[in-house]
Amino acid sequence: MNDVKPIYKSLNILLLLLTLFVTICGICSFNTVHTYNAVNQYGETIKMWGAGIYAHDSYFKAPIFIGSDFTILIFVIPMATLTFIKARKTQSVEYFIRSFGMFCLLLYYSASLAFGVTYNYLHLAYIALFSLCFFGVWLMLVELHTLEVRRGKVCLYPFTKGMKIFLLIAGISLFVAWLPDIIASIVNKTSLDLIEVYTTEITYVLDMGIISPLMFITYHQIKHGKFIGYVLVRMIFKICMIIGIMLPMQSVFQMLAGVSIPIPALITKVLIFVLLAVFAAFFEYRLKCETKYVEGII
After folding, report:
1. For residues 185 and 167, what is the distance between their CA atoms, to the nearest angstrom?
2. What is the torsional sign of CA 220, 140, 246, 42?
3. pTM
4. For 77-99, b where at least 16 C-beta lie within 10 A, e where not — what string?
5. Which of 204, 196, 203 is nearest to 41 (CA)?
6. DSSP assignment, residue 43?
7. I want to staple 215 with a disulfide (CB 3.0 to 4.6 A). Which of 4, 57, 77, 171 is the partner?
């Protein structure tokens, strides 16, 4: 671990600075007076945002992006900063795991920007942020796996029935939230209802293609006593908690922009994730309190 400390220090600083820059640019784009109409590839007339880095994004999606930027700036960056400082000072397994969770969270955010936002002048910044997060996650995952191989037993922790149920329900919920939209479009031979000027819905890809399967993989790993399973479940709880904050923030910015959100959509696409976040926060707190590390230093 000592040989790679400078790498993590540099990664942490670059990650925080780049995320700070990207989020501030995003939030400064909240301006509703520059809208215009455009015809998309499906022949539909779409209202466009028209301001800042999201000028060429739809009026419906731009406030969602800005809500994400706001959440990352206000909640995630301060949390990540404190975590990275603690990890550097203590060199403990606990804070290394927390740092891994922050990198994974920002990987999800950067992937949403790099693949989901219409091309703009921050595209190179999005690529750089995604690259930092991607390689940071894999470097840390390799380090944690090596730790397990070297020590054998790294920690003792409770994996309760409630946590098992949470992972299963959360994994299924991601399909419940997004799959009906896709099935309806396939049956009706149309595009997605809110595809607007985009070619795909990145949230569907990330949630159903990566996050949901990862929850079932994590369940399997923990069931067989793998330390990596513990690392992954801590990360999943962290992401669920932040998503539970981010979705209401996105809805708030949509309302501030005058976008009407149907009640059923709020229930299926916001309330479900808020409830999951509450349970995730409870389980995360319990794990932190009851985990016993065999050795405290990496």
Report:
1. 28
2. negative
3. 0.92
4. bebbeebbebbeeeebbbbbbbb
5. 196
6. S
7. 171
- Taking alpha carbons only, the member of 23, 25, 136, 16 closest to residue 77 is 16
The amino acid occupying position 147 is L
Cα dihedral 203→209→215→218 (10° resolution): -130
Q: CA nearest 69: which of 127, 126, 13, 20? A: 20
| Rg of the chain on CA atoms, in Å | 20
Tokens of 157: 């922790």
Return the C-alpha torsion angle 53, 56, 61, 64, nearest 10: 0
249 and 67 in contact (C-beta within 8 Å)?
yes
| Closest among 249, 245, 237 to 170, alpha carbons compared | 237
Residue closest to 139 by CA, chosen among 8, 298, 230 = 8
- How far is residue 146's CA from residue 88's CA, in Å, rounded to a whole number? 19
The three-state secondary structure class of 92 is strand
The token pair that represents 12 in the structure block: 């942490």
Amino acid at 161: K
Query: CA–CA distance from 32 to each of 52, 60, 66 (Å)?
Result: 10, 11, 12
Rounded CA gap, 195 and 191, in Å? 7
**pLDDT tens per residue, range 261-285:** 777 767 767 888 898 899 999 999 9
C-alpha triplet 143, 146, 152: angle, nearest 5°: 135
Helix (H, G, I), strand (E, B) or coil at 181: helix
* 230 touches 157 (CB < 8 A): yes
Please list, in sequence order, all residues whose beta carbon lies within 8 angstroms of the beta carbon of residue 44, skipping any fewer than 6 positions away: 196
Tens of pLDDT along 145-166?
888 888 878 888 888 899 999 9
**Residues 6 or more apart in contact with residue 186 via CB below 8 angstroms:** none
